Amino acid sequence: MLRTKIKPTIRQIASHFGISKNYFDEYFKQQTGTSSLDYRLAYRLELVETYLRYSSTRLGEIAHELEFSDKNHLSKLLKKHRGLTPNEYRK
């Protein structure tokens, strides 16, 4: 098992600082130039890339551990955002 949960949620982070999720999202985008959701997706995809390159963990398990809906959805996201399929990462 990978044990790389992406918790806490954006809402929990905002709550920790005593601000609303909407304010957090606005502030995050102002400071980074990207939305918190896009940043989180990019981070998760980087983790996927690392697992695909350096482990033999099955894509379904990676998808589950990193909170993607399923391996097919993850494959489509990788192709869309990174231009490679999971098999291409493993070559």
Structure overview:
It is built from six helices and no strands. By secondary structure, the protein is mostly helical. The chain has a single domain (10-90), classed as Arc Repressor Mutant, subunit A. The two termini are 22 Å apart.
Structure summarized in a few sentences:
The protein is an all-alpha fold and 91 residues long. The protein has helices spanning 10-16, 21-32, 36-54, 59-65, 71-82, 86-90.
Overall number of structural domains: 1
Q: Enter the CATH topology name.
A: Arc Repressor Mutant, subunit A
Characterize the main sheet. none
Mean pLDDT: 91
Structural class: mainly alpha
The CATH superfamily is Homeodomain-like
* CATH architectural label: Orthogonal Bundle
Note poorly predicted spans: none
Given the structure, what is the number of helices? 6
Radius of gyration: 15 Å
CATH class: Mainly Alpha
Order of helices and strands: HHHHHH
Approximately what portion of the residues adopt beta-strand conformation? Answer: under 5%
Euclidean distance between termini CA atoms: 22 Å
* DSSP, total strands: 0
Helical proportion? 55-70%
Shape field:
elongated
Main features:
mainly alpha; sequence-specific DNA binding; DNA-binding; elongated; 68% helix; Arc Repressor Mutant, subunit A; 91 residues
Map the helices and strands.
Elements: H1 10-16, H2 21-32, H3 36-54, H4 59-65, H5 71-82, H6 86-90
Organism: Sphingobacterium puteale
GO molecular function: DNA-binding transcription factor activity; sequence-specific DNA binding
Keywords: DNA-binding, Transcription, Transcription regulation
